[in-house]
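Fold this complex.
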Amino acid sequence: MSTTATRRAATSPAGSAPPPRRRVARRRLGRRTRVALRYGLLVLIMAISIGPFLWQLSTALKGIGEDIYASPPRFLPDDPTLGNFVRVGEVLPVWGYVWNSVRVALATVVLNVVGASLAGYALARLRFRGRKAALAVFVLALLVPGEAIMVALFLMMRSVSLNDSLVAVVLPGMVGALNVLLMYNAFLAQAAQIDEAAMIDGANAWQRFTLVALPSVKGTIAVVAIFAFMGAWDDFLWPLIVLSDPANYTLTIGLNYLKGTFVGDQRLIAAGTVIAVAPLILLFLTLQRYFFRGVNEGAIKG
Amino acid sequence: MQAAPTPWLFLLPGLAACVVFSLYPFLNTVALAFTDARTISPGGFTGLDNFARMADDPRFWLALRNGTLYVIGVVPPLVLLPLLLALLVRDKGPGIGFFRTAFYTPVIASAVVVGLIWTWLLDSRGLVNGTLQALGVLSRPIPFLTDEWLLLASAMAVTIWKGLGYYMIIYLATLGRVPQELHEAAQVDGAGAVRRFLVVTLPAMRTTMTLIAALSAVSAFRVFTEIFILSGDTAGPGGRDITLVMLIREVSSGLDGHVGYGAALSLVLFGLTLGLLLSVLRLQAGRKGPR
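Structure:
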Protein backbone atom coordinates (compact mmCIF):
# COMPACT_ATOMS: atom_id res chain seq x y z
CA MET A 1 0.00 0.00 0.00
CA SER A 2 2.74 2.42 0.92
CA THR A 3 4.32 1.98 -2.49
CA THR A 4 1.21 3.23 -4.22
CA ALA A 5 1.66 6.62 -2.70
CA THR A 6 5.28 6.92 -3.79
CA ARG A 7 4.48 5.62 -7.22
CA ARG A 8 1.72 8.11 -7.53
CA ALA A 9 3.90 10.91 -6.39
CA ALA A 10 6.58 9.85 -8.82
CA THR A 11 4.47 9.51 -11.94
CA SER A 12 1.59 11.91 -11.51
CA PRO A 13 2.08 15.24 -13.21
CA ALA A 14 1.02 18.03 -10.89
CA GLY A 15 -2.62 19.00 -11.03
CA SER A 16 -3.86 16.07 -13.09
CA ALA A 17 -5.56 14.18 -10.29
CA PRO A 18 -9.35 14.31 -10.60
CA PRO A 19 -11.66 13.28 -7.75
CA PRO A 20 -10.92 9.55 -7.55
CA ARG A 21 -14.09 8.39 -5.83
CA ARG A 22 -16.51 9.33 -8.57
CA ARG A 23 -14.31 7.74 -11.23
CA VAL A 24 -14.18 4.45 -9.34
CA ALA A 25 -17.93 4.37 -8.92
CA ARG A 26 -18.45 4.99 -12.61
CA ARG A 27 -16.03 2.26 -13.52
CA ARG A 28 -17.84 -0.28 -11.38
CA LEU A 29 -21.20 0.57 -12.83
CA GLY A 30 -19.85 0.25 -16.33
CA ARG A 31 -18.04 -3.01 -15.86
CA ARG A 32 -20.66 -5.32 -17.29
CA THR A 33 -21.39 -2.97 -20.15
CA ARG A 34 -17.71 -2.76 -20.87
CA VAL A 35 -17.31 -6.53 -21.05
CA ALA A 36 -20.37 -6.76 -23.27
CA LEU A 37 -19.01 -3.98 -25.47
CA ARG A 38 -15.63 -5.65 -25.71
CA TYR A 39 -17.05 -9.00 -26.73
CA GLY A 40 -19.48 -7.33 -29.09
CA LEU A 41 -16.54 -5.68 -30.83
CA LEU A 42 -14.56 -8.92 -30.84
CA VAL A 43 -17.40 -10.80 -32.51
CA LEU A 44 -17.92 -8.02 -35.04
CA ILE A 45 -14.25 -7.98 -36.03
CA MET A 46 -14.19 -11.76 -36.13
CA ALA A 47 -17.10 -11.68 -38.56
CA ILE A 48 -15.18 -9.25 -40.74
CA SER A 49 -11.99 -11.30 -40.67
CA ILE A 50 -13.31 -14.80 -41.20
CA GLY A 51 -16.71 -14.05 -42.75
CA PRO A 52 -15.27 -13.80 -46.28
CA PHE A 53 -13.64 -17.23 -45.90
CA LEU A 54 -16.93 -18.74 -44.74
CA TRP A 55 -18.77 -17.17 -47.67
CA GLN A 56 -16.21 -18.72 -50.01
CA LEU A 57 -16.61 -22.11 -48.32
CA SER A 58 -20.37 -21.81 -48.61
CA THR A 59 -20.09 -21.05 -52.33
CA ALA A 60 -17.81 -24.04 -52.80
CA LEU A 61 -20.42 -26.28 -51.17
CA LYS A 62 -23.33 -25.10 -53.31
CA GLY A 63 -24.45 -27.51 -56.01
CA ILE A 64 -24.88 -26.75 -59.71
CA GLY A 65 -28.62 -26.50 -59.31
CA GLU A 66 -28.42 -23.82 -56.66
CA ASP A 67 -28.56 -20.13 -57.56
CA ILE A 68 -25.39 -18.61 -56.11
CA TYR A 69 -26.57 -15.15 -57.18
CA ALA A 70 -29.83 -15.41 -55.22
CA SER A 71 -31.20 -12.15 -53.89
CA PRO A 72 -31.10 -11.76 -50.98
CA PRO A 73 -27.88 -13.82 -50.84
CA ARG A 74 -28.28 -17.10 -49.03
CA PHE A 75 -25.49 -18.13 -46.73
CA LEU A 76 -26.17 -21.79 -46.09
CA PRO A 77 -26.20 -24.17 -49.07
CA ASP A 78 -29.59 -25.85 -49.53
CA ASP A 79 -28.07 -29.17 -50.33
CA PRO A 80 -24.35 -29.09 -49.49
CA THR A 81 -22.18 -31.10 -51.87
CA LEU A 82 -18.48 -31.89 -52.26
CA GLY A 83 -19.00 -32.19 -56.01
CA ASN A 84 -17.18 -28.94 -56.77
CA PHE A 85 -13.98 -30.27 -55.24
CA VAL A 86 -14.19 -33.31 -57.49
CA ARG A 87 -15.09 -31.21 -60.55
CA VAL A 88 -12.27 -28.72 -60.05
CA GLY A 89 -9.90 -31.69 -60.11
CA GLU A 90 -11.44 -32.84 -63.38
CA VAL A 91 -11.11 -29.57 -65.26
CA LEU A 92 -7.63 -28.75 -63.95
CA PRO A 93 -4.82 -30.88 -62.46
CA VAL A 94 -5.38 -29.16 -59.13
CA TRP A 95 -3.99 -32.05 -57.10
CA GLY A 96 -0.79 -31.92 -59.15
CA TYR A 97 -0.52 -28.22 -58.32
CA VAL A 98 -1.07 -29.05 -54.66
CA TRP A 99 1.73 -31.63 -54.82
CA ASN A 100 4.06 -29.06 -56.43
CA SER A 101 3.21 -26.52 -53.72
CA VAL A 102 3.75 -29.10 -50.98
CA ARG A 103 7.21 -29.95 -52.29
CA VAL A 104 8.17 -26.30 -52.70
CA ALA A 105 6.88 -25.39 -49.23
CA LEU A 106 8.50 -28.34 -47.43
CA ALA A 107 11.86 -27.75 -49.09
CA THR A 108 11.66 -24.08 -48.17
CA VAL A 109 10.84 -24.88 -44.54
CA VAL A 110 13.69 -27.37 -44.14
CA LEU A 111 16.26 -25.14 -45.84
CA ASN A 112 15.20 -22.11 -43.82
CA VAL A 113 15.06 -23.80 -40.44
CA VAL A 114 18.44 -25.46 -40.93
CA GLY A 115 20.20 -22.54 -42.63
CA ALA A 116 18.79 -19.84 -40.37
CA SER A 117 19.45 -21.68 -37.09
CA LEU A 118 23.02 -22.53 -38.10
CA ALA A 119 23.79 -18.97 -39.18
CA GLY A 120 21.89 -17.40 -36.29
CA TYR A 121 23.77 -19.58 -33.81
CA ALA A 122 27.17 -18.72 -35.25
CA LEU A 123 26.39 -15.00 -35.19
CA ALA A 124 25.04 -15.02 -31.65
CA ARG A 125 27.15 -17.61 -29.88
CA LEU A 126 30.50 -18.10 -31.60
CA ARG A 127 33.34 -15.61 -31.44
CA PHE A 128 35.32 -15.19 -34.63
CA ARG A 129 36.88 -12.60 -36.87
CA GLY A 130 34.45 -11.29 -39.47
CA ARG A 131 31.31 -11.80 -37.41
CA LYS A 132 30.17 -8.19 -37.82
CA ALA A 133 30.75 -8.34 -41.57
CA ALA A 134 28.66 -11.50 -41.83
CA LEU A 135 25.88 -9.85 -39.83
CA ALA A 136 26.03 -6.86 -42.19
CA VAL A 137 25.53 -9.13 -45.21
CA PHE A 138 22.25 -10.39 -43.76
CA VAL A 139 21.04 -6.90 -42.91
CA LEU A 140 21.88 -5.70 -46.43
CA ALA A 141 20.08 -8.68 -47.95
CA LEU A 142 17.07 -7.78 -45.86
CA LEU A 143 16.98 -4.32 -47.43
CA VAL A 144 16.75 -5.62 -51.00
CA PRO A 145 13.09 -6.24 -51.86
CA GLY A 146 12.48 -9.39 -53.90
CA GLU A 147 10.44 -7.40 -56.41
CA ALA A 148 13.44 -5.21 -57.21
CA ILE A 149 15.68 -8.11 -58.20
CA MET A 150 13.19 -10.40 -59.92
CA VAL A 151 14.37 -9.46 -63.40
CA ALA A 152 17.99 -10.26 -62.58
CA LEU A 153 16.96 -13.44 -60.77
CA PHE A 154 15.01 -14.58 -63.79
CA LEU A 155 18.00 -14.00 -66.07
CA MET A 156 20.20 -15.85 -63.59
CA MET A 157 17.90 -18.88 -63.48
CA ARG A 158 17.73 -18.89 -67.26
CA SER A 159 21.50 -18.74 -67.63
CA VAL A 160 21.84 -21.94 -65.59
CA SER A 161 18.81 -23.48 -67.33
CA LEU A 162 16.82 -23.72 -64.13
CA ASN A 163 13.90 -21.53 -65.14
CA ASP A 164 10.58 -23.28 -65.42
CA SER A 165 11.55 -25.71 -62.66
CA LEU A 166 10.46 -26.06 -59.06
CA VAL A 167 14.10 -25.73 -57.99
CA ALA A 168 14.07 -22.20 -59.36
CA VAL A 169 10.95 -21.47 -57.31
CA VAL A 170 12.66 -22.64 -54.10
CA LEU A 171 16.19 -21.27 -54.46
CA PRO A 172 15.69 -17.51 -53.94
CA GLY A 173 13.80 -18.12 -50.70
CA MET A 174 16.00 -20.91 -49.38
CA VAL A 175 17.41 -18.95 -46.41
CA GLY A 176 15.58 -15.71 -45.70
CA ALA A 177 17.74 -13.01 -44.14
CA LEU A 178 14.89 -12.12 -41.80
CA ASN A 179 14.81 -15.70 -40.51
CA VAL A 180 18.53 -15.60 -39.82
CA LEU A 181 18.08 -12.43 -37.79
CA LEU A 182 15.10 -13.94 -35.92
CA MET A 183 17.18 -16.95 -34.93
CA TYR A 184 20.10 -14.68 -34.08
CA ASN A 185 17.85 -12.78 -31.67
CA ALA A 186 16.57 -15.97 -30.10
CA PHE A 187 20.06 -17.43 -29.53
CA LEU A 188 21.31 -14.11 -28.22
CA ALA A 189 18.77 -14.33 -25.41
CA GLN A 190 20.17 -17.55 -24.00
CA ALA A 191 22.21 -17.39 -20.84
CA ALA A 192 25.93 -17.45 -21.59
CA GLN A 193 26.66 -19.58 -18.51
CA ILE A 194 24.94 -22.66 -19.93
CA ASP A 195 27.10 -22.39 -23.02
CA GLU A 196 30.23 -21.99 -20.90
CA ALA A 197 29.34 -24.95 -18.73
CA ALA A 198 28.88 -27.12 -21.80
CA MET A 199 32.19 -25.87 -23.14
CA ILE A 200 33.95 -26.84 -19.91
CA ASP A 201 32.33 -30.26 -20.20
CA GLY A 202 34.15 -30.56 -23.50
CA ALA A 203 31.24 -30.06 -25.87
CA ASN A 204 32.24 -28.75 -29.29
CA ALA A 205 30.32 -26.07 -31.17
CA TRP A 206 28.15 -28.59 -32.99
CA GLN A 207 27.21 -30.40 -29.77
CA ARG A 208 26.44 -27.16 -27.98
CA PHE A 209 24.28 -26.12 -30.93
CA THR A 210 22.23 -29.31 -31.21
CA LEU A 211 22.07 -30.36 -27.56
CA VAL A 212 22.00 -27.09 -25.63
CA ALA A 213 20.93 -24.21 -27.86
CA LEU A 214 18.36 -25.64 -30.28
CA PRO A 215 15.96 -27.15 -27.73
CA SER A 216 15.40 -23.80 -26.06
CA VAL A 217 14.39 -21.85 -29.16
CA LYS A 218 11.52 -24.04 -30.32
CA GLY A 219 9.13 -21.11 -30.34
CA THR A 220 11.26 -19.10 -32.75
CA ILE A 221 11.82 -22.18 -34.90
CA ALA A 222 8.04 -22.54 -35.13
CA VAL A 223 7.77 -18.91 -36.21
CA VAL A 224 10.45 -19.38 -38.85
CA ALA A 225 8.84 -22.61 -40.05
CA ILE A 226 5.38 -21.07 -40.29
CA PHE A 227 6.64 -17.95 -42.05
CA ALA A 228 8.70 -20.05 -44.48
CA PHE A 229 5.81 -22.38 -45.22
CA MET A 230 3.36 -19.51 -45.65
CA GLY A 231 5.80 -17.55 -47.79
CA ALA A 232 6.39 -20.49 -50.14
CA TRP A 233 2.80 -21.74 -50.23
CA ASP A 234 1.36 -18.27 -50.77
CA ASP A 235 3.97 -16.81 -53.11
CA PHE A 236 2.60 -15.73 -56.45
CA LEU A 237 4.79 -13.21 -58.22
CA TRP A 238 8.04 -15.19 -58.44
CA PRO A 239 6.45 -18.49 -59.57
CA LEU A 240 4.39 -16.46 -62.06
CA ILE A 241 7.61 -15.12 -63.53
CA VAL A 242 9.75 -18.22 -63.47
CA LEU A 243 7.23 -20.95 -64.35
CA SER A 244 5.72 -21.39 -67.79
CA ASP A 245 4.98 -25.10 -68.18
CA PRO A 246 1.55 -25.81 -66.63
CA ALA A 247 2.91 -29.14 -65.34
CA ASN A 248 5.11 -27.18 -62.94
CA TYR A 249 2.48 -24.73 -61.74
CA THR A 250 2.17 -24.22 -58.03
CA LEU A 251 -1.29 -23.88 -56.55
CA THR A 252 -1.44 -20.07 -56.56
CA ILE A 253 -0.51 -19.95 -60.24
CA GLY A 254 -3.03 -22.67 -60.97
CA LEU A 255 -5.74 -20.72 -59.17
CA ASN A 256 -5.06 -17.63 -61.23
CA TYR A 257 -5.29 -19.81 -64.33
CA LEU A 258 -8.52 -21.30 -63.02
CA LYS A 259 -9.98 -17.85 -62.72
CA GLY A 260 -9.05 -16.98 -66.27
CA THR A 261 -10.54 -20.16 -67.66
CA PHE A 262 -13.76 -20.55 -65.76
CA VAL A 263 -14.92 -17.09 -64.92
CA GLY A 264 -18.39 -18.48 -65.40
CA ASP A 265 -18.29 -20.94 -62.55
CA GLN A 266 -17.69 -19.25 -59.26
CA ARG A 267 -18.20 -22.53 -57.40
CA LEU A 268 -15.06 -24.05 -58.93
CA ILE A 269 -12.93 -21.00 -58.11
CA ALA A 270 -14.29 -21.13 -54.57
CA ALA A 271 -13.45 -24.83 -54.30
CA GLY A 272 -9.93 -24.11 -55.53
CA THR A 273 -9.36 -21.37 -52.98
CA VAL A 274 -10.65 -23.61 -50.19
CA ILE A 275 -8.16 -26.28 -51.25
CA ALA A 276 -5.41 -23.65 -51.17
CA VAL A 277 -6.19 -22.15 -47.80
CA ALA A 278 -7.43 -25.11 -45.74
CA PRO A 279 -4.03 -26.81 -45.23
CA LEU A 280 -2.53 -23.53 -44.05
CA ILE A 281 -5.31 -22.90 -41.57
CA LEU A 282 -4.92 -26.44 -40.22
CA LEU A 283 -1.14 -26.04 -39.96
CA PHE A 284 -1.53 -22.75 -38.18
CA LEU A 285 -4.11 -24.09 -35.75
CA THR A 286 -1.74 -26.94 -34.86
CA LEU A 287 1.27 -24.68 -34.34
CA GLN A 288 -0.41 -21.50 -33.12
CA ARG A 289 0.51 -22.05 -29.47
CA TYR A 290 4.22 -22.20 -30.33
CA PHE A 291 3.74 -19.40 -32.80
CA PHE A 292 2.31 -16.87 -30.35
CA ARG A 293 4.93 -17.93 -27.79
CA GLY A 294 7.71 -17.62 -30.35
CA VAL A 295 6.55 -14.19 -31.39
CA ASN A 296 7.00 -13.08 -27.81
CA GLU A 297 10.32 -14.89 -27.44
CA GLY A 298 11.79 -12.84 -30.26
CA ALA A 299 10.10 -9.62 -29.28
CA ILE A 300 11.51 -9.33 -25.80
CA LYS A 301 14.90 -8.66 -27.29
CA GLY A 302 13.77 -6.93 -30.48
CA MET B 1 37.91 -18.79 -29.26
CA GLN B 2 36.62 -20.94 -32.02
CA ALA B 3 38.59 -23.18 -34.33
CA ALA B 4 38.77 -21.00 -37.41
CA PRO B 5 36.63 -22.85 -39.97
CA THR B 6 33.74 -23.90 -37.69
CA PRO B 7 31.77 -20.63 -37.56
CA TRP B 8 32.07 -20.25 -41.31
CA LEU B 9 30.70 -23.74 -41.85
CA PHE B 10 27.69 -22.73 -39.74
CA LEU B 11 27.29 -19.56 -41.77
CA LEU B 12 27.86 -21.08 -45.19
CA PRO B 13 24.30 -21.98 -46.29
CA GLY B 14 22.77 -18.71 -45.09
CA LEU B 15 25.53 -16.47 -46.36
CA ALA B 16 25.67 -18.22 -49.71
CA ALA B 17 21.91 -17.87 -50.16
CA CYS B 18 21.90 -14.18 -49.32
CA VAL B 19 24.91 -13.37 -51.49
CA VAL B 20 23.88 -15.46 -54.50
CA PHE B 21 20.14 -14.79 -54.51
CA SER B 22 19.99 -11.28 -53.12
CA LEU B 23 23.14 -9.19 -53.20
CA TYR B 24 24.55 -10.48 -56.49
CA PRO B 25 21.23 -10.08 -58.37
CA PHE B 26 21.01 -6.61 -56.92
CA LEU B 27 24.40 -5.66 -58.33
CA ASN B 28 23.29 -7.18 -61.60
CA THR B 29 20.15 -5.08 -61.54
CA VAL B 30 22.23 -1.96 -61.10
CA ALA B 31 24.45 -2.97 -64.03
CA LEU B 32 21.47 -3.85 -66.25
CA ALA B 33 19.72 -0.58 -65.52
CA PHE B 34 22.28 1.29 -67.63
CA THR B 35 21.99 -0.97 -70.66
CA ASP B 36 19.43 -1.61 -73.38
CA ALA B 37 19.50 -5.34 -72.63
CA ARG B 38 16.67 -7.49 -73.97
CA THR B 39 15.63 -10.91 -72.80
CA ILE B 40 17.48 -12.43 -75.72
CA SER B 41 20.47 -10.10 -75.96
CA PRO B 42 22.77 -8.66 -73.32
CA GLY B 43 22.64 -5.17 -74.88
CA GLY B 44 25.16 -2.38 -74.51
CA PHE B 45 25.80 0.50 -72.14
CA THR B 46 23.34 3.33 -72.73
CA GLY B 47 23.97 5.56 -69.75
CA LEU B 48 20.88 7.21 -68.38
CA ASP B 49 18.67 6.46 -71.41
CA ASN B 50 16.39 4.16 -69.44
CA PHE B 51 15.73 6.87 -66.89
CA ALA B 52 15.02 9.40 -69.61
CA ARG B 53 12.59 6.92 -71.11
CA MET B 54 10.89 6.65 -67.75
CA ALA B 55 10.26 10.36 -67.64
CA ASP B 56 8.37 10.07 -70.94
CA ASP B 57 6.50 6.91 -69.99
CA PRO B 58 2.96 7.78 -68.92
CA ARG B 59 2.57 4.37 -67.33
CA PHE B 60 5.55 5.02 -65.07
CA TRP B 61 3.90 8.16 -63.76
CA LEU B 62 0.63 6.31 -63.29
CA ALA B 63 2.44 3.62 -61.32
CA LEU B 64 4.11 6.27 -59.21
CA ARG B 65 0.78 8.00 -58.60
CA ASN B 66 -0.91 4.73 -57.63
CA GLY B 67 1.94 3.78 -55.33
CA THR B 68 1.80 7.15 -53.59
CA LEU B 69 -1.98 6.92 -53.21
CA TYR B 70 -1.53 3.42 -51.84
CA VAL B 71 0.89 4.64 -49.18
CA ILE B 72 -1.45 7.47 -48.20
CA GLY B 73 -4.50 5.23 -48.13
CA VAL B 74 -3.03 2.19 -46.44
CA VAL B 75 -0.46 3.36 -43.90
CA PRO B 76 -2.62 5.30 -41.39
CA PRO B 77 -5.23 2.54 -40.99
CA LEU B 78 -2.49 -0.09 -40.74
CA VAL B 79 -0.76 1.87 -37.98
CA LEU B 80 -3.87 2.60 -35.91
CA LEU B 81 -6.39 -0.23 -36.36
CA PRO B 82 -4.06 -3.13 -35.40
CA LEU B 83 -3.16 -1.29 -32.19
CA LEU B 84 -6.83 -1.15 -31.25
CA LEU B 85 -7.17 -4.84 -32.15
CA ALA B 86 -4.15 -5.69 -30.01
CA LEU B 87 -5.65 -3.82 -27.05
CA LEU B 88 -8.88 -5.76 -27.51
CA VAL B 89 -7.16 -9.16 -27.40
CA ARG B 90 -4.32 -8.29 -25.01
CA ASP B 91 -5.96 -9.30 -21.77
CA LYS B 92 -6.59 -12.97 -21.34
CA GLY B 93 -10.22 -13.90 -21.09
CA PRO B 94 -12.61 -16.58 -22.23
CA GLY B 95 -12.09 -17.24 -25.92
CA ILE B 96 -9.37 -14.66 -26.46
CA GLY B 97 -7.01 -17.20 -28.01
CA PHE B 98 -9.73 -18.05 -30.48
CA PHE B 99 -10.25 -14.39 -31.42
CA ARG B 100 -6.51 -13.86 -31.89
CA THR B 101 -6.35 -16.79 -34.27
CA ALA B 102 -9.44 -15.60 -36.11
CA PHE B 103 -7.99 -12.11 -36.57
CA TYR B 104 -4.77 -13.65 -37.88
CA THR B 105 -6.48 -15.85 -40.48
CA PRO B 106 -6.41 -13.30 -43.34
CA VAL B 107 -2.64 -13.05 -42.89
CA ILE B 108 -2.23 -16.78 -43.43
CA ALA B 109 -4.11 -16.89 -46.70
CA SER B 110 -2.23 -16.17 -49.88
CA ALA B 111 -2.80 -12.84 -51.57
CA VAL B 112 -4.15 -14.78 -54.55
CA VAL B 113 -6.76 -16.53 -52.44
CA VAL B 114 -7.63 -13.29 -50.68
CA GLY B 115 -7.89 -11.54 -54.04
CA LEU B 116 -10.18 -14.23 -55.43
CA ILE B 117 -12.38 -14.16 -52.32
CA TRP B 118 -12.80 -10.40 -52.56
CA THR B 119 -13.34 -10.51 -56.31
CA TRP B 120 -16.30 -12.73 -55.56
CA LEU B 121 -17.51 -10.51 -52.71
CA LEU B 122 -17.18 -7.27 -54.68
CA ASP B 123 -18.44 -8.60 -58.02
CA SER B 124 -21.43 -6.73 -59.43
CA ARG B 125 -23.48 -9.80 -58.48
CA GLY B 126 -21.45 -10.60 -55.37
CA LEU B 127 -22.33 -10.59 -51.69
CA VAL B 128 -21.74 -6.89 -51.00
CA ASN B 129 -23.75 -5.60 -53.94
CA GLY B 130 -26.31 -8.37 -53.56
CA THR B 131 -26.94 -7.57 -49.90
CA LEU B 132 -27.11 -3.83 -50.45
CA GLN B 133 -29.52 -4.28 -53.32
CA ALA B 134 -31.68 -6.74 -51.40
CA LEU B 135 -31.84 -4.21 -48.58
CA GLY B 136 -32.94 -1.60 -51.07
CA VAL B 137 -29.94 0.65 -50.34
CA LEU B 138 -28.77 0.46 -53.95
CA SER B 139 -30.67 0.31 -57.18
CA ARG B 140 -27.61 -0.42 -59.29
CA PRO B 141 -24.49 -2.35 -58.23
CA ILE B 142 -21.38 -0.38 -57.30
CA PRO B 143 -18.65 -1.08 -59.90
CA PHE B 144 -15.96 -1.94 -57.34
CA LEU B 145 -13.86 -3.86 -59.85
CA THR B 146 -14.36 -1.91 -63.05
CA ASP B 147 -13.99 1.72 -62.02
CA GLU B 148 -10.47 3.16 -61.94
CA TRP B 149 -10.76 4.73 -58.49
CA LEU B 150 -13.05 2.16 -56.89
CA LEU B 151 -10.74 -0.66 -57.95
CA LEU B 152 -7.79 1.12 -56.36
CA ALA B 153 -9.80 1.74 -53.19
CA SER B 154 -10.98 -1.89 -53.13
CA ALA B 155 -7.42 -3.14 -53.45
CA MET B 156 -6.40 -0.88 -50.57
CA ALA B 157 -9.26 -2.22 -48.47
CA VAL B 158 -8.13 -5.76 -49.23
CA THR B 159 -4.52 -4.92 -48.31
CA ILE B 160 -5.67 -3.38 -45.03
CA TRP B 161 -7.97 -6.32 -44.28
CA LYS B 162 -5.16 -8.79 -44.94
CA GLY B 163 -2.54 -6.83 -42.97
CA LEU B 164 -4.42 -6.08 -39.74
CA GLY B 165 -3.62 -9.38 -38.03
CA TYR B 166 0.06 -9.24 -38.90
CA TYR B 167 0.63 -5.84 -37.36
CA MET B 168 -1.64 -6.76 -34.44
CA ILE B 169 0.87 -9.48 -33.51
CA ILE B 170 3.74 -7.00 -33.58
CA TYR B 171 1.78 -4.66 -31.29
CA LEU B 172 0.85 -7.54 -28.98
CA ALA B 173 4.49 -8.41 -28.52
CA THR B 174 5.33 -4.80 -27.64
CA LEU B 175 2.28 -4.23 -25.43
CA GLY B 176 3.51 -6.97 -23.13
CA ARG B 177 6.52 -4.80 -22.40
CA VAL B 178 4.65 -1.67 -21.23
CA PRO B 179 5.41 -1.50 -17.52
CA GLN B 180 2.24 -2.48 -15.70
CA GLU B 181 3.12 -0.07 -12.86
CA LEU B 182 2.61 2.92 -15.13
CA HIS B 183 -0.92 1.76 -15.82
CA GLU B 184 -1.66 1.17 -12.18
CA ALA B 185 -0.24 4.54 -11.24
CA ALA B 186 -2.37 6.28 -13.84
CA GLN B 187 -5.39 4.37 -12.64
CA VAL B 188 -4.78 5.44 -9.07
CA ASP B 189 -4.57 8.97 -10.37
CA GLY B 190 -8.07 8.46 -11.69
CA ALA B 191 -7.22 8.31 -15.37
CA GLY B 192 -9.93 6.57 -17.37
CA ALA B 193 -9.27 3.98 -20.05
CA VAL B 194 -9.05 6.54 -22.86
CA ARG B 195 -6.70 8.78 -20.91
CA ARG B 196 -4.50 5.85 -19.87
CA PHE B 197 -4.30 4.86 -23.53
CA LEU B 198 -3.21 8.37 -24.54
CA VAL B 199 -0.79 8.98 -21.68
CA VAL B 200 0.70 5.56 -21.03
CA THR B 201 0.15 3.16 -23.94
CA LEU B 202 0.57 5.47 -26.91
CA PRO B 203 3.96 6.92 -25.90
CA ALA B 204 5.24 3.43 -25.13
CA MET B 205 4.09 2.29 -28.57
CA ARG B 206 5.78 5.09 -30.48
CA THR B 207 8.75 3.07 -31.73
CA THR B 208 6.55 0.18 -32.80
CA MET B 209 4.18 2.56 -34.58
CA THR B 210 7.10 4.01 -36.53
CA LEU B 211 8.32 0.55 -37.43
CA ILE B 212 4.86 -0.44 -38.66
CA ALA B 213 4.51 2.80 -40.62
CA ALA B 214 7.83 2.02 -42.31
CA LEU B 215 6.96 -1.61 -43.03
CA SER B 216 3.50 -0.87 -44.37
CA ALA B 217 4.69 2.06 -46.47
CA VAL B 218 7.40 -0.02 -48.07
CA SER B 219 5.04 -2.86 -48.86
CA ALA B 220 2.47 -0.41 -50.23
CA PHE B 221 4.90 0.54 -52.98
CA ARG B 222 5.46 -3.13 -53.75
CA VAL B 223 1.78 -3.99 -54.18
CA PHE B 224 1.07 -6.37 -57.02
CA THR B 225 -1.14 -9.36 -56.35
CA GLU B 226 -4.22 -7.59 -54.98
CA ILE B 227 -4.60 -5.35 -58.02
CA PHE B 228 -3.52 -8.09 -60.42
CA ILE B 229 -6.22 -10.47 -59.19
CA LEU B 230 -9.00 -7.94 -58.56
CA SER B 231 -8.54 -6.45 -62.03
CA GLY B 232 -8.03 -9.81 -63.76
CA ASP B 233 -4.50 -8.98 -64.95
CA THR B 234 -5.62 -5.81 -66.74
CA ALA B 235 -4.40 -3.28 -64.14
CA GLY B 236 -7.84 -1.74 -64.18
CA PRO B 237 -9.72 0.08 -66.95
CA GLY B 238 -7.19 1.20 -69.55
CA GLY B 239 -4.41 -0.11 -67.32
CA ARG B 240 -4.78 2.98 -65.16
CA ASP B 241 -4.38 1.09 -61.87
CA ILE B 242 -0.92 -0.19 -62.78
CA THR B 243 1.75 -0.39 -60.08
CA LEU B 244 5.53 -0.33 -60.35
CA VAL B 245 5.85 -4.08 -59.89
CA MET B 246 3.19 -4.75 -62.54
CA LEU B 247 5.04 -2.43 -64.90
CA ILE B 248 8.40 -4.09 -64.22
CA ARG B 249 6.93 -7.50 -64.91
CA GLU B 250 5.22 -6.32 -68.05
CA VAL B 251 8.17 -4.60 -69.70
CA SER B 252 10.65 -7.35 -68.83
CA SER B 253 8.60 -10.41 -69.72
CA GLY B 254 8.12 -12.07 -73.05
CA LEU B 255 10.64 -13.34 -75.52
CA ASP B 256 11.92 -9.87 -76.28
CA GLY B 257 11.33 -8.09 -72.99
CA HIS B 258 13.19 -4.88 -72.22
CA VAL B 259 15.04 -6.22 -69.19
CA GLY B 260 17.33 -3.18 -69.12
CA TYR B 261 14.36 -0.86 -68.73
CA GLY B 262 12.82 -3.30 -66.25
CA ALA B 263 16.00 -3.19 -64.20
CA ALA B 264 15.98 0.61 -64.22
CA LEU B 265 12.40 0.57 -62.95
CA SER B 266 13.47 -1.96 -60.29
CA LEU B 267 16.16 0.44 -59.18
CA VAL B 268 13.56 3.19 -58.80
CA LEU B 269 11.42 0.81 -56.74
CA PHE B 270 14.42 0.02 -54.56
CA GLY B 271 15.24 3.71 -54.15
CA LEU B 272 11.66 4.54 -53.22
CA THR B 273 11.36 1.78 -50.62
CA LEU B 274 14.74 2.54 -49.08
CA GLY B 275 14.02 6.28 -49.10
CA LEU B 276 10.66 5.75 -47.40
CA LEU B 277 12.23 3.47 -44.82
CA LEU B 278 15.02 5.90 -44.02
CA SER B 279 12.76 8.94 -43.85
CA VAL B 280 10.31 7.25 -41.51
CA LEU B 281 13.16 6.07 -39.31
CA ARG B 282 14.70 9.53 -39.33
CA LEU B 283 11.34 10.98 -38.31
CA GLN B 284 11.50 8.69 -35.31
CA ALA B 285 15.08 9.63 -34.49
CA GLY B 286 14.24 13.33 -34.75
CA ARG B 287 11.34 12.92 -32.39
CA LYS B 288 13.56 11.25 -29.86
CA GLY B 289 16.36 13.76 -30.30
CA PRO B 290 15.50 16.62 -27.93
CA ARG B 291 15.07 14.37 -24.92
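The two ends of chain A are 34 Å apart (CA to CA).
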